[in-house]
Structures are given as C-alpha cells and as structure tokens.
Design brief:
With about 240 residues, the chain is of the alpha+beta class. The strands form two sheets. Strands 3, 5, 6, 7, 8, 9 and 10 form a seven-stranded mixed β-sheet that branches. The protein has a three-stranded antiparallel β-sheet with strand order 1-2-4. β6 and β7 form a beta hairpin. α3 packs parallel to α4. The longest helix has 24 residues. The protein is globular and about 60 Å long.
Length: about 240
Amino acid sequence: MARLLRWLALLVLLALAGAAAGVWAGLIVVPARYDPWARLDLRAEPDWLTGFKLSRLEREPEQCRAALGETGLRFTALPDRDSDENCALRGVVRVARSDVAFSSGFIATCGLAAAWTLFEANALQPAAERHFGQRVARVEHLGSFACRNVYGRTSGRRSEHATANAIDLAAFVLADGTRVGVLGDWEVKPDGRKAAFLRDVRDGACRFFDVVLGPDYNEAHRNHFHLDMGTFHTCR
C-alpha cells in the first residue's frame, strides 16, 4: 500500500508539472484570472493569486504601469533617478488622484500605487460603507518620498520612504464632510464608529501592503498609518 501511495503521489506531481509547463508554453489556455503568469487585473475581485501577481508587478514597472492604466487612477510615469545618497527612484509614478481626492499628489513606486488601488476598492471604501453608509471622498496623507533613514535617524537603514515605496495616511474625509483622523479617533469613544472604521482600514490594508504600522505599533505612529511594500511583513 505504501508503495502504491508513493507512485500515486509521483504521478500527481508529474501531472501538475506537465500542466504548469503546458500553461507556460501556451499549449494549455486558462482564463487570465486563474493564470499565475497573466498580468494582474487591478479592477478584479482579489483572489488567491492576487498577492503573487502583485509581487510580479513590483518587479515589472512596464507591466505595472499598463495595469494601472486600466484603472481610474490618475498618474504620470516618471523617469528613473539615480542618487548619491541611496535614495534612487526606480519605476515610480506621480499619483494625482483616484476615485478619492488626495490632500496633495505624491510620488510612489508603481507597486505601491498598484497596492493602493486594490486597498481602496476592496478595503477602504467597503469599510466606510459598512460603518457610515457612505464612501470616502478625500484622503489626507503625510507624504511618500523622503530621502532619510528609518525614523529620521542619523545612522541605520534607509526608510522605505527613501525610495517612495511607502505612504503615511493621517485622515479620511467622508462624502458628507465627516473627518476621521488617526490621531483623534483611534481611541474608542461612546459612538465607536470612527475607531471601528480605522481598525477595519488598518486590517484591510494588511491584505495588500507588506508593512502596515499604526498607533498600536509605537508612539511614532500615533497620528498615521504607515503603509509600504518593503521586504518585511508586519501588520500592527
């Protein structure tokens, strides 16, 4: 019986490898949604392949900009820029607005901008509709690009902000003008909706960004959510 099970396992592995090779070679056609090598459709409902496809977009700026071009994000591709201070910009775009207005335009890696479109459509706006019955109209941020070390220290590793691979969100303004700020509304108050909304936004961001830091992380983040597409994976 053990030998039979080993042979069956081997046959299954060979079949899976053959199917993967067929897809890669174009001999087997599968819908783009289920093809791990197809470009991510940022407008589609996220599924089990979204994270993998998003990571590919981070490494392929041209494909990433093409994917962004299919969304409602208004952006301008910027040329790469070298830096003597380890703050080179590669594959970046300037974001003007999306379905929400921003307190100001910002520079972002294309991967960060792609993650934003997924987060906005599948986490931010659904959270606003759940808690307030309306959508977010404006997002206030504290910036994305800053050529500096983590926490602005004189030594240590560079921040993800140094390559425009991070953005700090301070507040969200709803369609009726209601403002929900991280600094003033994180602590639970009698109404409770604003704090619950902010926690939903934080948790939803963890689905699409590699690092999400907020007031629960440390005092430095008491007034904003830090979102980035770096090499670490933290959600707090």
